[in-house]
Amino acid sequence: MVASGLGPTALAVTWSEFAAGTALMALRIYTNGFIIRRWNPDFWWAFSSYVCAILSSAFLTISIDYGIGAHFSPATPSSNPDPQSQLYQLVFTTFSILAIAFGKMAVIQFILQLEGTNRNGKRILYFCAASNCIVSFIFIPLLWTQCNPVDKIWNPSIAGACYGMETYTIFAYFQGSFGATLDTALALYPAIMLWHLQVKLHVKLGLIILFGFGILAAITAVVKTVQIGTVKEMQDTTFHQGYLDIWASTNLWVVFIASCIPTIRPILVRTIHKVTGKEVNIAIATGYIYEATLKDSKDDSAKSRKVRAYSKVYARGQVSRNATTKNVFESEEDIMPGKDEIVMTTEYQVKYEESQDSLSEKGLGRTESWKDER
After folding, report:
1. Which of 269, 301, 356, 371 is least surrounded by Cβ atoms within 10 Å, i.e. has the fewest?
2. Contact 213, 230 (CB under 8 A)
3. pLDDT higher for 318 or 176?
4. Residue 60: what are its φ and ψ, rounded to 5°?
5. 344 phi, psi to nearest 5 deg
6. Whether pTM exceeds 0.85
7. How far, CA to CA in Å, does 210 sit from each of 44, 115, 186, 283?
8. For residues 73 and 81, what is the distance between their CA atoms, to the nearest angstrom?
9. CA distances (Å), 163 to each of 121, 153, 160, 166, in order?
10. Helix (H), strand (E), coil (C) string for 246-305
11. Is the peptide bond before 149 cis (omega within 30 degrees of 0)?
């Protein structure tokens, strides 16, 4: 069946968003593979979101091919949509919810790495992660248990009952509202966290803007939620379902894109510095987890040790304008304001693993405070 009505528009939107998301994913892979050289948990959440988003677009395409987005009139039996369109619509919705949930988890995991040792901040983020998973994984069973038997959801001619439809609709409104609230919180929380860092204003604003793209995800979630009621009220349900699908697809891809944008800052900084003729410098992501290889100079066998460091830097007072901070991306940038002195406390937790024999040193912790006045 040839796509008609809103079908072509929905296809254009979802696959354009796929192209943008794929470009961001490629940049993220380059950042993790060649700049920070580490595949952190937030990457794998984002990758899972990307896979589910692709599957969502694929099943949306199939459902459109079966009639979603086309005009339907109860008075004209020939215009009735193929029941299979609603089946693929359910599969599209399932992967959409998973893509959105995994995308939010990627953002939460990335912010957790920036939090360092802030326990209260971590508790808030853990609550966001848990509630995100709970709401998402309650939604999916409600989606598939609206009717008994299940086939009646997409084929009304089958005998049975659909007592779960009202419950599903109510929870769909809640899930959309909750998603918008969580997107807003994840966009604003980093701004509060980063604002107290003792770094240059343009660095703060740049990071806040990168995280702020999550506000767009909140907006799309609100519009998508409003469309749920619109579809229920219209007789031409398959046509207006196209509006809902356009916004549902946009919501999931914007969530994914918003989860990638803050992580590709190293590439953005490199590009800007190349254009302006400056040296390649990339600002520190405070508390970001990194891995390095150390050589033990006292060991004749020069056994290599892998060190995994989790650091949090607390800046107090003024910092010399000439001071530079070594960062996880193996470069330096003058990001500290002030001109008098450095008063800084750094906490480290370091784990070592020997590469030879079965020797290992795990759980080695160190807390270090230092003051450097200039």
Report:
1. 301
2. no
3. 176
4. -65, -40
5. -140, 140
6. no
7. 20, 17, 12, 14
8. 10
9. 42, 11, 10, 7
10. HHHHHHHHHHHHHHHHHHHHHHHHHHHHHHHCCCCCCCCCCCCCEEEEEECCCCCCCCEE
11. yes
Distance CA 265, CA 33 (A): 14
Least confident of 117-121, 192-196, 306-310: 306-310
Band of residue 156 on the pLDDT scale cut at 50, 70, 90: confident
Tokens of 28: 């993220």
> Are 200 and 337 in contact, with CB atoms under 8 Å apart?
yes
Tokens of 294: 């150390």
Is the per-residue pLDDT at 180 higher than 60? Answer: yes
Using CB atoms within 10 Å of the CB of residue 10, give its burial: 0 to 12 exposed, 13 to 18 middle, 19+ buried: buried
Question: Does the pLDDT of residue 258 top 70, yes or no?
Answer: yes
Return the percent helix, strand and coil in the chain, to nearest 5.
60, 15, 25
Q: What is the DSSP letter of 364?
A: -
Instruction: In whole angstroms, give the CA distance from residue 173 to residue 228.
Output: 8
Locus of tokens 């004749």: 300
